[in-house]
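This week, think about what follows.
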Amino acid sequence: MGFKKPRFFQLDQPYDQHKMEQTLRQLGELLLGAVPTVILLGTLFVLYTLLVHRPLTAVLAERRSRTQGAVEKAQADIAAAEARTSDYEQRLREARLKVFKNQEARRQLAMQSRAEAVNQARSRTQQQVKQARAALEQDKQRALGNLQAEAGRLANQIVRTVLRPVAAPSLVGGR
């Protein structure tokens, strides 16, 4: 089995200059015909970048920053509500301490009628604790209502921002 030369390496065929010129002319025409396509693709790329990509990137960045800002504000509101709750709990502790101090003073003053004084002090203490709890519960409910209203408003704002249509007319299609 011998090695066969490929057909295009065979030197015994005559060199056809006419075919070669025709091939080169066709290749030149093909390249010349591709120039408008290359120009059109370059123009389309530039127009896409200017009209679609850059505005879309800017809008997405703005939405991301607004969403992050809303989340941070909600976290700050939650922290403020927790601080208020802690403050209310401290006030309740102080109120209880005050009640207990008053109760002890009354006990010392009324040693002879101790049983009656103890019952009166307990009823007053329970009433003050109920009032303090009621006041605390009202403040807590008000704070929760404010937080829920704010959260709803923020959620609506976020939804409106995210779902807002982007108004960028396309000039590429000619319309």
